[in-house]
Amino acid sequence: MPEGIVGEFLSLKAETDADLLAMQCGDFYEFFADDAEFVGRELDLTVSQKGAHGSSYPMAGVPLTELTPYLKVLVERGFRVAVADQYETDGGHARRIERVVTPGTLLETTDAEARYLAAVVREGEGYGLAFADVTTGKFHATEVGGDIEAVLTECYRFAPAEILPGPEVRSDDALLERLRGTEASLSLHATEAFEPGRARAMVDDQFGEAALSSVGLADSTGAIRAAGAVLSYVEDTGIGVLASMTRLQPYATEGVTLDATTQRNLELTETMGEGGRALFDVVDHTTTSGGGRLLREWLCRPTQDTRELERRADGVDALAREALARERLRETLAEGFDAERLASKAVSGSADARDLVRVRETLAVAAEAAAVVEDSGLGDSPLADVLTRFDREAGAALREELDEAIAEDPPATIREGNLFQRGYDDDLDDLIVGHEEALGWIDGLADREKGKYGITHLSTGRNKTDGYYIQVGHSETDAVPEAYDEIKSLKNAKRYTTDELEEREREVLRFEERRSDLEYDLFCGLRERVGDRAELLQDVGRALAECDCLASLAVHAVENDWTRPELVDSGIDIEAGRHPVVEHDVEFVPNDLSLTDDRGFLVVTGPNMSGKSTYMRQSALITLLAQVGSFVPARSARIAPVDGIYTRVGALDELAQGRSTFMVEMSELANILHSATEDSLVILDEVGRGTATYDGISIAWAATEYLHNEVRAKTLFATHYHELTGLAEHLDRVANVHVAADERGDVSGSEATGDSSEAKRTDGEVTFLRTVEEGPTDRSYGVHVADMAGVPGPVVERSRDVLAKLRAEKAIEARGSTGEPVQTVFDLGSGSFRGSASADGGQASMDEAQNDESDRDPAEESVLDALRGTDIGETSPVELMGKVEDWQRELDDE
Ligand code: ADP
C-alpha cells in the first residue's frame, strides 16, 4: 500500500518537530515527499517517483546499515533528524519514532573535539547556562551577570553544536541575533522543560539531591533551569545517554576572563584569517583524543589558582626532565582508547564487543601508565597523584571480568555470536559444545560418504538458498545411493540432501539461533554492567587525558626551549620572550617586557610591520600559558596571575561580516573599559583608526587616561598616533616603548656596521630590528612599507616628496594627470585641499615640480624677497597696497 506508507510517514512526521524523518521500510530507511527532495539535494541521493492509484510522490532511501554516515552529514549541517524504526506486531508491523538525532546530541561522532549541547535562559538580572557533552558525559552549569557578552564568552569557550534558548531568550532579539552568529544551530525545546520546579526535579533526579548544594548552585535558579532543560532535551531525543552524565560541574568562578573577542584575537584554537596556525595546533603533541580535548579546554580556560598552576607546572617540569619515562608514558597512552566516550557508548547501549575490548585495553593502559610513572623518576611527581584519581581496584576488577568474557577478536556485530570466551557461562558452553558437535558431524560427512560409496568427486557445502548439501560431479552421479534427494542440478555437478543431513542442519540452525540469542543477552548484560561503571571509566579517561596533556606541554617545552614561569605577587616581567606561534615561522627576535605597579601602561609605537602586534600578543600569550600551567617561550618569566585578558585588535573579520568596523571597535573598547580590573591585562592594538583622525586621537587619549586612572589595568597600547607618546610625561604609570627600526641599514649596511645580531632582518631599505626599546619613535615608515609591498617607484618617490613637505609644513602642489603642477595647495591647518588654479601652461617638467625656490625665475625671487622683507607692523595699509601693486606689475612683466 504505497499511499498507506506515505500517509504513515506524514503522520509520524507530524508527531515530531524534527526537520526530517527517516522511516524504516524493511532493509531501508526511506524519506518521502518534501523530505525526499531535500535529502536528494543535500546528500546527493537518487530520488525516484513512486506512484500508485494515480498519485505519485518522491522517495529516497538508504540501506539500514548505512544510515549513520548520512545522519552525521545532515546533523553536522544543522538539521535535526527523527528516526522511525519498524517493529513486529501481531498482525504484521508498525513504526514509531525511536530517537531524534540533533547537532548537540550526535553520539556517532569521530571528532576529537567535544560536542556540546547548551541551554541559555534569562533569570532575573543575569543568565543561566548549561553545557553537556553527550559523547563524554561532561555536564557544566553556571550563572553569569546580565551582560550578553558574558553569555557569548561562555558560548565561544564551549563552542556548542546546538543551543536551546529559554522562553525569555527567544524573545530577546539582540541575544538571539548574537547566538545565531555562533556556529551552533538553535533548537526550540518545550517551554515547560525550562520551568524552575520541573527543571530542579530533573537535575535532582539525575545527579542526586545533594548535587546542587554541593556545587553551590542550590539557589541558582538560572543554572538549574538551563541544566534541567538540557537533561530533558537529551531524554527526549531517545539516545539513552542520560546515565553517562554522572557529575554536575560548576565552573568559571575561579577562571580568568577571556571574552569571545579575545579568544578569537589570540587565535587560541582557531585562526582569524587565511593561513597561520592556532596556538593549540602548535603546542598540541597529545597522543589521545581525550588529551587533545583537555589541552583545548586548558588553553581556553586558564586559571588564577596558583596551587593548581604549580601542580601542573611541577608535572610538566618532571616530565621535561625525565625524557625516557615521558616517551614511554606517551607510547603507553597512545595504546589506549577514549574512555570517556566509551563510557557514553556503554551507557547508551551503542557499544559493541569491540568497544568492550577497547575498554579492557584502556584499563590495561591505565595500569601500565601507573607502573611507568611509579618505576621512574616521575614517582613523586604530580603524575603519580593523577593516576590515583580513579579506583584502581575497581578498574582491575572490570578489566578482569572483560578479560574472561570477551573473545580475543570479536566480530563487529553483536547479533551473530562468537562474542565470548569459553568458560564464561556454563549454558553458553553447553550450547557451544552441541553446536560444534553438530558442525563436526557435517564436516566429516564428505569423507564418510566418499569411503562408503567410492565417489571421489563428493563434497559438502552450505549456502543461503540450498542450506547444507552434498555435491557430486556429473561423472559419478550414477553411483549416488537411493537415500540422496536431488535438490539442484548445476553445469558440472548435482546437489543432494539426505534425511539425516536435514536433521543435522536443523540441529545446527537451532544451536546457532540459541547461541546467538544467549550471547546477545549475555552481551547486553555485560554492557550494562560496564555502563554502570561509567563514572570509573570517566575517571580513567580524565586521568589519562591529564597525563597526556602534561606530557604534551613537556614535549613542547623541551623541543622549543621554553622555561618554567615563576608565579609572583605583582607585575609581569618577561626576559627574552617570544611569540609561541610566530617563533616557528621566522627567525624570531626575542623581546623583554616589564609591567610593574609603577609602570603598568606602555604605549607601544613603531613603524607598520615592525612587530608591535606580535609583541603585544606574545605578552598576552606568555601570560596565558603561565596560567595554563605550561612553560613559556622566554628566557625567564615572572608573572603575577591576571584575572582577565582583554584585547582589541583590527577587526578585519568583522568587516567581512558586514558589521561596521568602527562600531565593533568601539563596543569592544567599551567592554574592556567596563570589565577590566586592576589585575587584568589589556592589549589595545590601535584605537580610533576607524574614524577621522582627530576623533580617533581624542578617543584614544581619553581611553588611555581612563585605563590609567580608573581601571589601572596592566596595559599595552600600540598606536600610530604619536601624540599619545606625550602622555608619558603627564601620567605617572605610562611609559613609552617602541619597536626599533634602523633606517640606515640595508643588507650590506648592517654587515658593514658589524652588527652581530643575526636576527636583524632586512626588508627593503629599512631594517626592522624587531627589538622593543625604551622611549617613543618619531618616524612614520608608511612609505617604506608601500615600497616593500611593491607600490610603483614613481609613486613611492612622490610620496617621499609629499611627506618631506608635510614635515617641513610646506604647501604641497598637487599634480595633474599629465604630471604638471596644478598649483592646488594642501593646507596643513585645515587638513584639506584649498582652491584649484589652472595649470600653468605646462612648461613645468617633472624635475621642476620637485624643485625648491632656488629654481624660480629671477622676478619671482625678487618679489618673494621683497615680501619676506616687508614688516607689516611698520607699514601703513596705503603703503602696503602700493607695494602689492608693484609686485604684481613685476610678475606680469615677466
Ligand atoms: P605591526 O603590528 O607593527 O604592524 P606585526 O606584529 O604584524 O607588525 O609584525 C609584522 C611581521 O613581522 C610579522 O609578519 C612577523 O612575522 C614579523 N615579526 C614580528 N615580530 C617579530 C620578531 N620579534 N622577530 C621576528 N619577526 C617578527
Bound molecules: adenosine-5'-diphosphate
Principal-axes shape call: elongated
Report the CATH C-level class of the largest domain.
Answer: Alpha Beta
Number of strands: 30
Structural class: alpha/beta
CATH homologous superfamily of the largest domain? P-loop containing nucleotide triphosphate hydrolases
Low confidence ranges = 651-656, 743-764, 778-782, 810-814, 821-853
GO molecular function: ATP binding; ATP-dependent DNA damage sensor activity; mismatched DNA binding
Keywords: ATP-binding, Coiled coil, DNA damage, DNA repair, DNA-binding, Nucleotide-binding
Region (Disordered): 742-774, 815-894
Organism: Halococcus hamelinensis 100A6
General description of the model:
With 894 residues, this protein is an alpha/beta fold. It folds into 5 domains: 4-101, 3-Layer(aba) Sandwich (MutS, DNA mismatch repair protein, domain I), CATH 3.40.1170.10; 116-253, MutS, connector domain (Nucleotidyltransferase, domain 5), CATH 3.30.420.110; 426-520, MutS, DNA mismatch repair protein, Chain A, domain 3; 566-788, P-loop containing nucleotide triphosphate hydrolases (Rossmann fold), CATH 3.40.50; 809-893, no CATH class. Helix content is 45%, strand content 19%. An 8-stranded mixed sheet has the order 12-22-23-24-20-25-27-26, sandwiched between helices. A 6-stranded mixed sheet has the order 3-4-2-1-5-6, with helices on both faces. The protein has a 5-stranded mixed sheet with strand order 9-8-7-10-11, sandwiched between helices. The longest helix is centred in the middle third of the chain and has 34 residues, at 499-532. The structure holds adenosine-5'-diphosphate.
